[in-house]
Amino acid sequence: MNTKITIAIDGFSSTGKSTLAKQLAKHLGYIYVDTGAMYRAVAYFAMQKGFITSSTFDKSALIAALPTIQLSFEFNETLGFAEMYLNNENVETQIRTIEVSNYVSKVAEVSAVRAKLVEQQQEMGKNKGIVMDGRDIGTVVFPEAELKIFMTASAATRAQRRFAELQQKGDEVSYEEVLKNVEERDYIDTHRADSPLIIANDAIEIDNSDLSKEEQFKIVLDLVDEVINAK
Length: 231
What we know:
By secondary structure, this protein is α/β, with parallel strands linked by helices.
């Protein structure tokens, strides 16, 4: 398969975007980029520096510190995917907590943060052969992507998935807390002034509330084959 395309996967939180993107990238031999991890790393940085707390958010301090933030992905052969590094430190585990989830959408609202990360993301995908997931991939990062997927599911379904994932990691969190976080992130993501979460006009929407990972993968892989065969 010599023809390479850009695959943009957008959607709400906890819809399994990253899982699907990893499956596709591995199957196709493409580069996978988890843009959500990049925003989570910046949110984690802001938390560590005290720029953001439950009651305050010093956006000016975060913006001033952006030049000191170095983000990179390093492939972990044991895990089979690339992990997020913040200033040369592996923060893959730290950025997946409910605490970071509570702040990441607020950090992602900051235009200077988005500009910095979008520039990096576009550079990563300039040669195609990439699967990238996030909130604005098909609308802002790669508006010319050959295949755009928009993933959705009910808030309750997504909260249950996220709750099970956090429980498996040993995090002490209630379902109600996770549902509240999902609903709050949905609101912020869809109402922010800069690059809100919307469905691109040419995106294919997939509601995976009642789909297994295998069923979902087959649907999207068929779409990939259709796009590549048409080129």
